[in-house]
Amino acid sequence: MSWQTYVEEHLMCEIDGQHLTAAAIVGHDGSVWAQSSSFPQFKPEEITNIMNDFAEPGSLAPTGLYLGSTKYMVIQGEPGAVIRGKKGSGGITIKKTNQALIFGIYDEPMTPGQCNMVVERLGDYLIDQGL
């Protein structure tokens, strides 16, 4: 299965009638493996900062999480495994696997819990596959 198929069929799938706004699978080095057409163009340092927060949980909290020049307030996640951010009525979930970062971006009426479930389920599956 191609990485693009994972994005389209697993991340951008329908959940209770809702869809993520954007999604991507990005290597730890910032290389894009696959992304939805709506995923923001990000800067390399934004991925570096996210990777640093996985290594040192809480490092993004004072400044916020930036992706594609959009600032998210960092909210409770799972240190070293999941980073969650909030912006207005939407937000972002990032799950770290052995080799990649799984991104899900949502807006109302999708809930944070629905976004977390989609992103973390795929992330756990990939971890189980050694990826």
Automatic annotation (TrEMBL):
Gene Ontology CC annotation, any one: cytoskeleton
Keywords from the UniProt entry: Actin-binding, Cytoplasm, Cytoskeleton
Signal peptide limits: none
Main location: cytoplasm
Gene Ontology terms, MF aspect: actin monomer binding
Compartmental location: Cytoplasm, Cytoskeleton
Record-stated family: Belongs to the profilin family.
Subunit and interaction comment: Occurs in many kinds of cells as a complex with monomeric actin in a 1:1 ratio.
Function, as annotated: Binds to actin and affects the structure of the cytoskeleton. At high concentrations, profilin prevents the polymerization of actin, whereas it enhances it at low concentrations.
Protein name: Profilin
Organism: Elaeis guineensis var. tenera (Oil palm)
Organism taxonomic ancestry: Eukaryota, Viridiplantae, Streptophyta, Embryophyta, Tracheophyta
